[in-house]
């Protein structure tokens, strides 16, 4: 239920580009071992936190 709600929010153009939401989504998808989705949500960068999460994904 959480993943589907998260994907719905990420698909909303009004809030889907929020860097904090994208960071949390990347962490959740990494935890779920859905690395493709995690990369999709964090590779746009924009903040040091997103770049750090992207680097952590690359090392997995």
Automatic annotation (TrEMBL):
One record GO biological process: retrograde vesicle-mediated transport, Golgi to endoplasmic reticulum
Presence of the UniProt keyword Transport in the record: yes
PANTHER family membership: COATOMER SUBUNIT EPSILON
Topology of the protein relative to the lipid bilayer: Peripheral membrane protein
UniProt protein name: Coatomer subunit epsilon-1-like
One of the Pfam families matching this protein, by short name: Coatomer_E
Record function comment: The coatomer is a cytosolic protein complex that binds to dilysine motifs and reversibly associates with Golgi non-clathrin-coated vesicles, which further mediate biosynthetic protein transport from the ER, via the Golgi up to the trans Golgi network. The coatomer complex is required for budding from Golgi membranes, and is essential for the retrograde Golgi-to-ER transport of dilysine-tagged proteins.
Localization, UniProt: Cytoplasmic vesicle, COPI-coated vesicle membrane; Golgi apparatus membrane
TM region positions: none
Main location: membrane
InterPro entries with a match to the protein in the record: Coatomer_esu, TPR-like_helical_dom_sf
Family statement: Belongs to the COPE family.
UniProt keyword terms in alphabetical order: Cytoplasm, Cytoplasmic vesicle, ER-Golgi transport, Golgi apparatus, Membrane, Protein transport, Transport
């Amino acid at each position: 239920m959480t993943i589907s709600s998260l994907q719905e929010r990420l698909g909303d153009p009004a809030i889907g580009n929020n860097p904090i939401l994208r960071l949390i989504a990347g962490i959740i998808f990494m935890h779920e071992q859905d690395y493709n989705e995690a990369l999709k949500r964090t590779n746009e960068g924009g903040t040091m936190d997103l770049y750090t999460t992207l680097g952590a994904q690359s090392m997995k």
